[in-house]
Every structure is written in C-alpha cells, then in structure tokens.
Write a structure and sequence with these properties.
Blueprint lengths: L2 H17 L13 H29 L11 H24 L3 E2 L4 H9 L8 H26 L5 H25 L3 E2 L5 H31 L6 H21 L8 H9 L3 E2 L10 H23 L11 H19 L7 E2 H23 L11 H26 L9 H10 L13 H29 L3 H27 L17 H22 L8 H18 L1
Parallel strand pairs: 3-4
Antiparallel strand pairs: 1-2
Amino acid sequence: MPPLTLFCYHWPLALASSAASAPLPEPTAAVSGGWTVLMGLAGLIVIVAALALVYAVARRRMVDVKPLSLEDVGELRKIYLVLLTIYFGVAIYGSLVPLQVRHVAWDTAVEQFRNIRYLQLDEVSRADWVANILLFIPLAYLATAVLTLGVRSWLVRLAAVVVVAGSCAALSAAIEFTQIWFWPRTVSLNDIVAESIGGLIGSLLWLLLGTTIHGWLSAYLTPQRRRTQIDQLLEFYLVGLVIYSLLPLDLTISPAELYHKFRDGKIVRIPFSDFYWNVKLAYSVLTDIVTFIPVGMYSATAFTSQQKPVRGLLASTLLGAGIAALIELAQLFVIEHFTSATTVAVAAVGCCIGAALMRRFRSARWGETAAFWSEETARRAASICVALMGLYALVLLAVFCSGGVWETDAARLSRRFHGFWRPPLAALYWGREYNALSDVLRKVLFFVPLGALGAVAAWGMTASKPRRRLLFFAVLLYAAIVSFSIEMLQVYLPPPKGDPSGPMHVADVGDVLVCTAGAALGLLLTWRVLSAPQHFPRREELRIEHHRDTEGTEKGE
C-alpha cells in the first residue's frame, strides 16, 4: 500500500472508525448544551472569517470609489432605522407563524412561563438552535447602528452594546411568552438563550466592524463605472454563497460523527461515482454549473493588477475550482451537507464558463463607451429580452410544476385552494429552518433573471424616465402573474401518495410575494448597472484633480 494513500486516507479512516466503535446515539438522544454552544460559535467564526477575507478583496476594488460620508448622520440613521423596522417586523412575524391563536388563561400562561425549561438538543435541532442565533444578529446589528452611528466615544458605544444586548434578551423572552397563545409554537429556554447570544454578537459586530462594513456597502451606492459595480456585485455574491453553503451550521469536529457521515455516503471522493443519470440529477448538475458561473467571473478579476486586469482562462478556472474545493472542505464539517468531488468538478465547468464571459466582457469594453448602448443596439436588446422573458417563464413553470399527479377530486382541490390563502409562508413552519431558508432563496434566485431581463427590455424601449418607471412596474406585475400562475398550477399537483421524496407542491400566497421580490431584486441590480456613468475618471485623473485643488487652496490662502 503506498505510504501517501495510507497517510491521507486509510489511517484517518481507521482512527475515526476506532473512535466510532460505539454506535452513535439515536436522533432523540441529548447533546450537551456546552457542545452546542461551541459548535454555534465555531460556525459564527467561520462566517466572520469569510466576510473578512472577501472584504479584503473588496478594498482593492474601491480605489476609484469614494464611500458615502458618515458625517451626514441624520440621513444615514434614518436608513438604518427603516431597515431595523422592516427586519423587526419580519422577525416577529416569523416567530409567531402560522398565526394559530388559542385560548390560554393569563395565570396559566404565567405559570407555564415560570416553569420554562431548557430542552436537550439532538443533531437535528442543533441547526434550529443556531438559526435562532442568526435571527437576532441582524436585529442587534441594525439597532446598534441606529444608536451609535457617528458617535466617537468608546464608552458610549460599549453602553449601547449593553443596552442592545439586554433589549434583545428581553425581546426574546417577550416573544417566547407570547408564543404560549400561538399553537403549535414551542416555548423553551433554548430560544431565549440562543437569541440573546445572537443579540450580543450582532451588537459587537457593529462595534468592531460596523464602520468598515458600512463603507463597503455604501460604496456600491456611489457613482462608479459599470465594471466596478459588477465586480462588487460578484463579491457580494461570493459572500452570500459562502455563508449559504455553511448553513444550517450544524457543525461537528467529532471523529465518530465524521466517520458515520462517510459511512452513510455523504462523502464522495471519486467524481460522478454517486451519479445515476436522470432528470433530477441533471437538474442538480445544471444548478451547480449556474451557481458557480459568477464565481468564475470573480476569479477572472480577483487579485489582478492594472497592467493585467483579467486572468487567463485556465488560471481563472483553477482558482474558481479551488474556491469550490474549499467550500466543499468546509461542508465536510456540516452534518447536513454532502461533501462530493463531483460538485468540485461540475463547479469547474461553471467557473470556466464564467471566466470566459468575463474575459469577453473585458475585451469588448462593455458599458465603457456610448457606442455599445446606441439606440439601435438597445432596441434590439429589448426585443430579445422580451422574447427571453416569455421563454424563461416557461422554464419557471417547468421547474416549479414538475412531478406530482394531477388532482381531480373537488373536495381536495377546494382544501388546497383555500390553503393558498393561509398566512404568507406559514407552510414553511412545518419544516426545518434551513429547509425554509433554502426554499425562499431558491425562489428568489430563480426570479432574479426574470427581473434582470425586464430591466434591459425597459431600458432599451424608451429613454424617458417616467415611461421606464411604468415599464418597471409592468415587469414586476408580469413576475407576480407568472408566480401566481405557478402557485395555481401547484394546487392541481399534489405529490404522489406514498412518495415522500416527491416534489412538495404547496400553494402559498407568500411564494408569490417572495418570487416578486426576487424579480424586483434582479430589476434593481440591473438598473443600477445600466444607469452607471459611461465615462468615469480614472484613479490617476482623480489624483491629478485633487492635487490641483490642493495647490489652488494653498495659493488662495
């Protein structure tokens, strides 16, 4: 046996096997609270490290951008206050769905809350516990931003952290107490502890990195070239991909659990050895390719110099495949995920496509000259995008309405149709938080291209801003109609009986809102790129202008 094989594969596997000689506890067995806290904190450290790494790259791209000033504290505080209000409403709503109120006497509720207990967690509920931590991080982050934006005193900032962390703990306790009247919500001390930890982390995150993150995000709102905007959007995408790939953060460093993950077939070392080609797997391969196309585009321009702004196709592909390999390696320690060499191989294809597109984009100097967006070219692009919007709507119908059996029973159809009007997203409560998040993000991302196509079509049809706004509204209405049509078709397509792996077609009015929001996101991002200045001064020109202004000021003095 080769020594390298012995060292890299058989010896670690034998070590893990010996550690796992005793069978793993059943899913209902308890996992200590300290171990759960350790795993959650490890996941948060991974997320913060990923944010720091990608932001370090973002700083290299902001040389031509002057971020929004923090001096105008009043306006910026209003923005953070609006975001805080929106997120607060979403958090409260998500904590009370499916909004089924039951009668409980006040004395009974108080007594029940006094006897609230800490429930022991298993491998499945560990991820749900971490999800409660993540729920309160943005809430505390935004609240601390509202209180300390523009404040330079560290004593006041630390006091704000204490106030926000304490308020989050009180809010969590109030939510848990209110859940007593909402069936089938579970009232436990676990949620209060997890959300209190999330509140503390969120407030500390703003205290330590708030100004830096604010500068990165606000730079996107300043006038900049289309190339810079696209580069920064790709950085945002990479951050989101890394975070999403590590959810639900049910992390483990136990050799026994890793061995059992390997034994259960969740670790695939040989590419495509786990594939039995069918429509479902073909769809999975296509999804992975599309997912990593932006990563390939990012790899083509990351860490490049001004003399050579685009990396070669092979180097870009290898860099993108390396990023995919690191993500898969990180997923090795996430119990929920599969770690597969197949994903790396498929991701390399997507990265190659993305790198080729970026090289084409750079060589053609897209968006840097007015000639590219001549009236004739814009009108032709609008016609093509209108046709693609129709074709893509058919693709969405095929994706979300595939499988299932055609329902003909009138009583069942009536129940499914009335279920469509349940509180938005209430159906997601019955699944896991990670599955709910995946479902929402999947619908958002599928409708982003529809909004992007609509933005290009509206942009090319007219140069009048009022007409463009009207067309943008028409695009959102079209996306809502498409999503509503999908939900109505799903009323007639329940999963086959006795097939739990079949598609779960659940008609929900909340899906219409989510899909329309995805189209709005694609529309706004594309509009932002299209409306960028066609000519923007380079860094050297900005330095010369600044030098002249400085000399003029000195002479005037």
